[in-house]
Automatic annotation (TrEMBL):
Disordered as annotated region, ranges: 388-412
Cofactor(s) the record lists: Mg(2+)
Protein name: Hydrogenobyrinate a,c-diamide synthase
Miscellaneous: The a and c carboxylates of hydrogenobyrinate are activated for nucleophilic attack via formation of a phosphorylated intermediate by ATP. CobB catalyzes first the amidation of the c-carboxylate, and then that of the a-carboxylate.
Length: 454
């Protein structure tokens, strides 16, 4: 076991691309699965706030997929969180980090901040660039050369050619990249490409289609094994220097358990509520809670002895009829007098209705699907005291939804940002569209456990 404070030569690499749609998720998931098939312990990570890709990563790697987002958690926590994720439950042999959007695409108006390149610099990892070569020849080398020169602090150690049209096309591309001194570590033809199904907010989460997801991951592993030089990929990962930062520790972050008994905190899961960060439950447990999962689609009651509830994000709109049919659980949540923290999907579930279908009625709003995608990072301030936050507490989060509520906020709003009020604080309930990462706000976990203990 590696000491969390000792220098650790963790092999690692970042899978990136010039833009979205080049095949990062295909390659990253396939790499994770293929390396695991070799008997390696692989730690999966994702740049940005995305919840869905880490689900595929977790299936491929056999351990939780974790996010690395400087906007949500701060630059100073990125390498410690990487080390933590690569250390539990057992130390990894290699870490694979999937990027977000294009390599240099960061938070709007903040240049490269929160970009894949930014994270690659923070964890000092080489980049494997996935390149969609459709309708592209020698110009691919110019594109890679430009990507490499744009930020000298980012080291592109190799390229994986995706959607190659023919053996002749592959030869042309390899010759061109040899001219600029960038090695090609693999090539995937258009005919061989494997993808997972998608819908209005991206890929379909693993939890909604487990058997099919297993088949997709297996196919991706076979694809990578047959098209990628895994030995060269591992050699590239081993060029990363040792990690010298200490691992992030949930117990230290939250200040240890609150004392007294261990209140049961019920955390929603299942196909309708798949959006959560692994660190959330780790922090709750470190703060002294007994964390128990429940599935609002199938469980007719909250876990025995539940004294607080967390309902995160997901796709209630896809499962609205089944959620409505579980009337016993809806009624229990409507009357539950303990603290509740809800984000996005949780906000919709706690309202009166979603697209006219009855929900819990714990909060006074109705919700509906819209044709507009609300997406982006937010800088918010807590607008009222709640089970998770104190009035005036600054928080960074993100929104990602195609629904709207009426009203958009309660008499006591959860947040203020951009001159407006958002979400609901109603009694002991805190609910809004804003997704936050509690590694940056461990006091939220401690505050919730303390409220549950009271």
């Amino acid at each position: 076991m590696v000491s969390p404070d000792a220098s650790w030569p963790l092999p690692r690499l970042v899978v990136a691309a010039p833009a979205s749609g080049h095949g990062k998720t295909t390659v990253a998931t396939g790499l994770l699965a293929a390396l695991r098939r070799r008997g390696l312990t692989v730690s999966p990570h994702k740049v940005g706030p995305d919840y869905i890709d880490p689900g595929y990563h977790a299936l491929a790697a056999g351990r939780p997929g974790r996010n690395l987002d400087p906007w949500l958690v701060g630059e100073e926590r990125i390498a410690p969180l990487l080390r933590h994720g690569a250390s539990v439950p057992t130390p990894a042999d290699v870490a694979v980090v999937e990027g977000v959007m294009g390599l240099h695409d960061g938070a709007v108006g903040r240049r490269s901040y929160a970009s894949t390149a930014h994270v690659a610099r923070l964890i000092d990892a080489p980049v494997l660039l996935v390149l969609d070569t459709t309708a592209q020849g020698r110009s691919a080398a110019a594109l890679v050369l430009g990507m490499r020169a744009f930020d000298p602090g980012v080291r592109i150690g190799g390229v994986l050619l995706n959607r190659v049209g023919s053996p002749r096309h592959e030869t042309l591309l390899r010759d061109a990249l040899a001219e600029v001194g960038v090695p090609v570590l693999g090539a995937v033809t258009r005919a061989a490409e494997v993808t997972a199904p998608s819908r209005h907010l991206g890929l379909v989460p693993v939890a909604e289609r487990a058997p099919e997801s297993l088949a997709v991951v297996a196919a991706l592993a076979e694809l990578v094994e047959s098209t990628v030089d895994l030995d060269a990929v591992l050699d590239l990962a081993r060029t990363a220097p040792p990690l010298t930062v200490s691992a992030w520790d949930p117990a230290s972050a939250v200040g240890g358990p609150t004392g007294g008994d261990r209140p049961v905190v019920a955390v929603a899961g299942g196909p309708a509520f798949t959006f959560s960060y692994a660190e959330t439950t780790e922090l709750l447990a470190a703060a002294g809670a007994t964390v128990v999962r429940f599935d609002p689609l199938r469980d007719s009651a909250l876990p025995a002895g539940a004294r607080a509830v967390v309902v995160g994000g997901g796709f209630p709109e896809v499962h609205v009829e089944a959620l409505a049919a579980n009337s016993a659980l809806r009624a229990e949540l409507a009357d539950f007098d303990g603290p509740i923290v809800a984000e996005c999907a949780g906000l919709l579930y706690l309202g009166r209705s979603l697209d006219g279908v009855p929900m819990c009625g714990r909060l006074p709003h109705t919700a509906r699907m819209t044709g507009t995608l609300t997406l982006g990072y937010r800088e918010a301030v807590a607008a009222a005291d709640s089970p998770a936050h104190r009035t005036g507490e600054p928080v960074r989060g993100h929104e990602f939804h195609r629904t709207a509520t009426d009203p958009g906020h309660g008499d006591r709003a959860a947040w203020r940002w951009d001159g407006g009020r958002h979400g609901f604080v109603d009694g002991r309930v805190h609910a809004s569209y804003l997704h936050t990462h509690w590694a940056a706000h461990p006091s939220a976990a401690r505050r919730l456990v303390e409220a549950a203990a009271r």
